Amino acid sequence: MDLCHVPATREKGWYLPLMAPNVKGPNYAWLDPSRLYCHPQGLQDCLNDLLQPFQGDPIDMVSGIDAMGFILGAAAAATLQKGFLAIRKAGHLCVQTLAQPYTDYSGREKVMEVRTDAITPGLRILLVDQWVETGGTMRAAIQLVERLGGVVAAYCVPTGIAAICIEDSEGGRWLQEHYKCSHCVPHRLQPHFDRHQ
Questions:
Q1: What keywords would UniProt list here (predicted)?
Q2: Residue 23: which residues within 8 A CB-CB, separation 6 or more?
Q3: CA torsion sign, 151 to 140 to 52 to 4?
């Protein structure tokens, strides 16, 4: 799809074909959304689709997960006129932090961390990442926020989780059962994304 083309009718997810497929093999994610971010209308419509379920919800801050979640998270924060907090891979922050080990989508053991002075008890946080495959990274981010007293959405508490895609994996289903979630993949296309097609 042309980076200047905007379809006459823009249904939810029309911008998904802008994502570039993996040509480098199994050590890489199967899609790269960074081309979607180059399309001004595609990025705006993606953000609108992600944020629509949270309209009117009392969100205090947006938090993005290292690294590609920084792009969508910061854009969402600007749209909502809220502050933005980066949840980082361990070893990058020069301030006091809280750390959380996790296993990512590729099965690698990692650690992420967040500064301890940005989240106060009861702060309502919208967590944003580019993609949720197995849910391990997002669950670690939730644990960091909740250990500091912040609130990520349970269904009785309006704020939550947003990603371009939340796959129908065990971890993805767990997140959707326990938290208010939003993603951009239309229901009819979900099986293709789950099978990485």
A1: Cytoplasm, Glycosyltransferase, Purine salvage, Transferase
A2: none
A3: positive
Per-position b or e across 27-61, b if 16+ CB within 10 A of its CB = eeeebbbebbbebeebbebbbebbbeebeebebbb
Contact between 115 and 61 under an 8 Å Cβ cutoff? The reply is no
pLDDT at res. 66: 93
Segment 139-194, tens digit of pLDDT = 999 999 999 999 986 555 556 999 999 999 999 999 999 999 999 999 999 999 99
SS3 per residue for 86-130: EEEECCCCCCCEEEEEEECCCCCEEEEEEECCCCCCCCEEEEEEE
* Residue carrying structure tokens 């083309």: 5
DSSP H or E segment with residue 164: strand 160-166
Assigned fold of 59-194: Rossmann fold (3.40.50)
Q: Please, which residues have CB within 8 angstroms of residue 88's CB and are 6 or more apart in sequence? A: 66, 112, 113, 114
Paired tokens of 165: 């895609």
Among 101, 160, 169, residue whose Cα is nearest residue 132 = 169
Q: Which residue has the tokens 């989780």?
A: 161
Q: Which string of DSSP letters, residue by residue, matches 149-163?
A: T-B---TTS--EEEE
Domain ranges of the chain: 59-194
> What is the 8-class DSSP label of residue 16?
G
What does pTM read for this prediction?
0.93
